[in-house]
Amino acid sequence: MDQSRSSSKESPYIRVAGEREAGVKCARCNKEIEQGELTASCMQCGGIHHQTCWTEYQQCGSYQCSQGTMSNASTSALVISRDDLNHAEPLPVIPSYTDNALTISEKPKQLWNKLAIWAFIIALLGIPLFGIITGLFAMILACIALVSHPTHKKGFALAVAGLMIGFFEIIGWSAGLYFYMDTPRTNSIAFSEYAFDPSSLDNLPADLKRAMKSNVLIEVNNGLFGRGMGSGVILTSVDGKSLIVTNRHVIDPEYNGDSRNVTEDFDKSDPVTVQAIGQIPVQGQIEWIAPHGIDLALISAPLDKEVVSDAFWHKDKAPLIGSKVFAIGNPHALGWTHSTGNLSQYRKQTKGAFTYQIIQTTTPLNPGNSGGGLYDENGFLIGINTMTGDKRVAEGLGFAISINTLFDLIPGTFQIPAQQGKIESDDANVSETNN
Length: 435
Prior knowledge:
- This protein has 435 residues and is α+β, with helices and mostly antiparallel strands.
- The protein folds into four domains: 10-64, 2-Layer Sandwich (Wheat Germ Agglutinin (Isolectin 2), domain 1); 114-182, no CATH class; 201-301, Trypsin-like serine proteases (Thrombin, subunit H); 313-419, Thrombin, subunit H (Beta Barrel).
- It contains ten helices and 17 strands.
- The protein has helices at 3-8, 51-57, 63-71, 82-87, 114-125, 131-147, 156-182, 206-214, 248-251, 403-409; strands at 13-16, 38-41, 48-50, 215-221, 227-238, 241-246, 272-276, 282-289, 297-301, 313-314, 324-329, 337-351, 354-361, 373-376, 381-388, 398-402, 419-420.
- α5 (114-125) packs antiparallel against α6 and α6 (131-147) packs antiparallel against α7.
- The longest helix has 27 residues, at 156-182.
- It is rod-shaped.
């Protein structure tokens, strides 16, 4: 028998575990020995055991003492037959990045997130196409791609780009459509296209000729979407300077009918261009904007008094419902156009605490008539044309702000009389003695 094995079977040293032995792991069961337990120490190697572990195996369990027994342990031979070899299947080969036979360039390629790619492509297509729909669809795909984006795939940046492009497409196309639908298509027409035949004024009745010569064409810069165009009526001409009434929305592209405060610093407003009959365009100056959000304004311009005429009016005389009326203006860039109709009704409109009179008429009004004059059959100014009904759903509905509203609101510093001009007793024409 091997000497180490014989030695390990010698009687051990039995003692109670003290502080030195407490916490030491048993050489046989590998569990900690607690203070006060009976222990057995190998006389050969000094390995400490629980007494019960030594008694059960009758030998030391340490590695030093057990080598001899392991070398003498019985073993059985493993026999593999030829049939076993024939039926054996090779294990699958798993490529390893640490294999020296592989290089970094031979690693599998990283895949793309297809949703992210489609979101980016659709967003790009929406720029020239209808971006409101394509932009929304691109944003939805991009959000899905970002939420479900696998970490092992590429395309995160494309999904973010598709989301941002789609967002700005919706805003841009919405704003563009809004301004396109809201802007008259005549804004970009040049003044040279407003020319008319001067001989058309020959042999006109005095009242109609005066109304024609008191009409002006007004043009104002309308931002990126061209120039806004409308009409105006000359009230007075003093010292080479004519005072003209028009609609506020003609000279203020930001006006939307509200009663917001109006700045008095008109010098910062967009430039206003005024053209009178038979004259070249000149620079105009905003002088006054009506309070309460009412659609009236005054501008001034240096016009030749020998060519133009001041309008006639009589504040206290208003035509009856059903009376013939006519309008002079510049509809759709056709300058100094005359159109006739009847006075349909007097109506009221309230802005804040102020109530004023509106004239309803069957006179045809179109974009460009805004700010022009509505006259009674004697050529007296009775209102400022301001709007018309939607011709897609209504016909023969035009509206003008009564001239009395202007005189109720205009400051006294402008010194506008309540009456200008008179009807001669001999006929229905109006005297032009004030011109």
